[in-house]
Amino acid sequence: MRDLSDYSQPITDLFDLPKSEEDWERYKLSEDQIASFHELGYLANVRLLDDEQIRVLKSALDEVTDPKHPLHHLFHEFHSNESTDPDKVLFHSLGHWRIHPAFHDVIWNPAFLMASSQLLGGRSVRFWHDQLFSKPARHGGNVAWHQDYSYWTRTVDMQHLTCWCGLDDANEENGCLHYIPGSHRWGLLDKPALAGEMDGLKTMLNEEQLASFNPVPIPLKAGCATFHHPLMVHGSFANHSLKSRRAFVLNVFADGTVSDTNEPLLEGVPVIPKGEKMGGKFFPLIFKVD
Which cofactor does this sequence's record say it needs (predicted)? Predict the structure, then answer.
């Protein structure tokens, strides 16, 4: 058993890294897709996984969510239930890339790497942290409206990106992601409790923002992803359906981002002093642009 953060490259054959510039071309987003991302604040329905990769990652999720896993201590966070509603369940964790080879290697999925670099303006990309979210059938909890960067202000400049990828089909019935298009231009808002009251963030909005608060559901087939801006307001409702809703999240930032704190950036990670560039084995360079 080993800490997989010691390996800053793929360790299985689950994903094939392209060997030439021509090989990378098949993963490139179109100019229209990139323009839509900047206009709306998100880009949905990007295929990242095939059926076999979905199967392997589902199996991996079942393994790492067991609190008795021998590498459980490597999680940065582990919440068997982060919901504030005692009748709902929201599993949420950070750090499973250190524990299971499949979640380690999904960071080097070429479709994810190419899209991330393009949406960050053609920049080199570093890994920030991963997340798992699992909403069980019938009583899965919500994720409150929030902006990701409101939890990440310990890193600057703001040049981050989030990728959400479903391992189950996600729809309005089982609690798919919702966006507020254009909200990435609202500036930084205060952070609410992530699994608290759904509408806590709305108390922080002005009249103009409230008037344009029109949630758009993002239904996705398993294996498809949505990318969003760090200031995009998003959330997801409870799962009352008969089907689970499991997903993983990969968060990245452009190379050159620095620490803005003298506290640990993640639980169990050595301090990167304020003002120093983010790097090292916990924040590996995953895509380099020459």
Answer: Fe(2+)
Cα→Cα distances 73→30, 39, 68, 132, 263, Å: 41, 41, 10, 16, 20
Q: Which helix (H) or strand (E) holds 161?
A: strand 160-166
Q: What would the two tokens of residue 275 be?
A: 């003002």
pLDDT band at 26 (very low <50, low <70, confident <90, very high): very high
Please, is 125 exposed, middle or buried when counting C-beta atoms within 10 Å of its C-beta (0-12, 13-18, 19+)?
buried
Task: Say which amino acid occupies 18.
Answer: P
Q: Which helix (H) or strand (E) is 248 found in, with range?
A: strand 245-254
SS3 73: helix
Candidates 42, 267, 17; CA nearest to 163 is 42
Q: Which domains does the chain have, with CATH numbers?
A: 32-65+72-287 (2.60.120.620)
- The letter for the amino acid at 147 is Q
What pLDDT shows up at residue 73? 97
pTM for the structure as a whole: 0.97
Q: 178, 236 in Cβ contact below 8 A?
A: yes
Enclosing H/E stretch for 179 = strand 177-179
Is the preceding peptide bond at 157 cis, omega within 30 degrees of 0? yes
Q: What is the 3 state secondary structure string of 92-128? A: EEECHHHCCHHHHHHHHCHHHHHHHHHHCCCCCEEEE
How big is the chain, counted in residues? 290
Q: What span, in angstroms and rounded, lies between the C-alpha atoms of 161 and 141?
A: 24
Beta-bridge partners for 94: 77
290 band by pLDDT with thresholds 50, 70 and 90? confident
